[in-house]
Amino acid sequence: MTENVGNVGTVETKYYTFGNSPKELTLESGEKREPITLAYETYGKLNQKKSNAILVLHALSGDAHAAGLHKGDKRPGWWDTMIGSEKALDTEKYFVVCSNVLGGCKGSTGPSSTNPKTGKPYGTKFPIITIQDMVSAQRRLIDHLGIDKLLTVIGGSMGGMQVLQWMIYYPDRIGSAIPIATTMKHSPQQIAFNEVGRQAIMADHNWNNGDYYGRSAPDRGLAVARMVGHITYMSDVSMAEKFGRRLKNHGRPFKFGTDFEVEGYLRYRSDNFVKRFDANSYLYITKAIDYFNILNGKKLSKIFKDLKAKVLVLAFKSDWLYPAYQSREIVKACKLAGVDTTYCEINSTYGHDAFLLEIKEETHLIKHFLRTVSNG
């Protein structure tokens, strides 16, 4: 599908600011925030009935730029392979919206944003946020766009968590939902991986309790956090196929450098990551992911009791970060609530990253599913 890369054309990021008193956004913690800005992009056209809108929800390191090209860029948005003419989310049919989450660092209000009360970046004075808070902010954006009911909400990983939150919090605002490679709650192991990343950032001597803006940032700590995360996104098979035990210099220099190709790859990916992501946002967003738990003592059969939407759940056999059994739990909860649900487990060797890479299979399944969905 490389010939279709960037076929939505040149796009611009837009910004919506809301929540001025007395219409502040009340966070799950009870704290009220004002004002809040969300960065967002749209692709395709909203039809006259406003019934063809799809909300794309991004993962931890994603942003509002899901498709197309920014002026002067050569690399398209992070899900460009799925959004555009004749793609899974066909912009000839659908109006696609993607926003940067609350707490992010790519245009939406987050720890690196200026606190209007002090004129300085919030840093760790930014309030703790949750997936529910992210979705509450998104709902304000959807209201602003004049959309009463979304045709579908779709996302992978943390994006899938936001999908599940929409299914619970705003069941009457969605016609369908597509959670991909996600979970209803983090396991202790999943929390542990995130905590290692957070500790790496906070151990960096440049972190300075989050007050590093205008000075050297905790780049090494954030790079290590990204390395740990990236290992969990791949599988043993995909790493063996991509790198094996190949040495970069075809020898054994016996030094602590990037001897193996996999070491060079991790350093390359992490060095690029720190150029575009804020360390404090990484702390806040991973904490929001760890706090996420839609079970919260509820019976499995009661979680989606108010949901009338159709659901497509996708998982990948080699995903060990969010194993397929966690997706099957989502399906079970939906079925117990009488929700019309389809489950597909894709045979992929890519690991968790498969939701970004298994384009052909996902496109086939999503296109077929959307043909069965109507928004009235």
Question: What does it look like?
Answer:
The strands form three sheets. The chain has an eight-stranded mixed β-sheet, sandwiched between helices. A two-stranded antiparallel ribbon has the order 2-3. It has helices spanning 131-144, 158-169, 188-203, 219-233, 236-242, 261-274, 279-291, 324-336, 354-357, 359-371, and strands spanning 14-18, 25-26, 32-33, 36-43, 53-57, 95-99, 114-115, 120-121, 152-156, 176-180, 310-316, 341-346. The mean pLDDT is 94. β11 (310-316), α8 (324-336) and β12 (341-346) form a beta-alpha-beta unit. The chain is globular. The chain is built from ten helices and twelve strands. The longest helix has 16 residues, at 188-203. The chain has two domains: 2-186 and 295-371, Alpha/Beta hydrolase fold, catalytic domain (Rossmann fold, 3-Layer(aba) Sandwich); 190-288, Rna Polymerase Sigma Factor, Chain: A. α1 packs across α2, α3 (188-203) runs antiparallel to α4 (219-233) and α4 crosses α6 (261-274). 32% of the residues lie in helices and 14% in strands. The protein is of the alpha/beta class and 376 residues long.
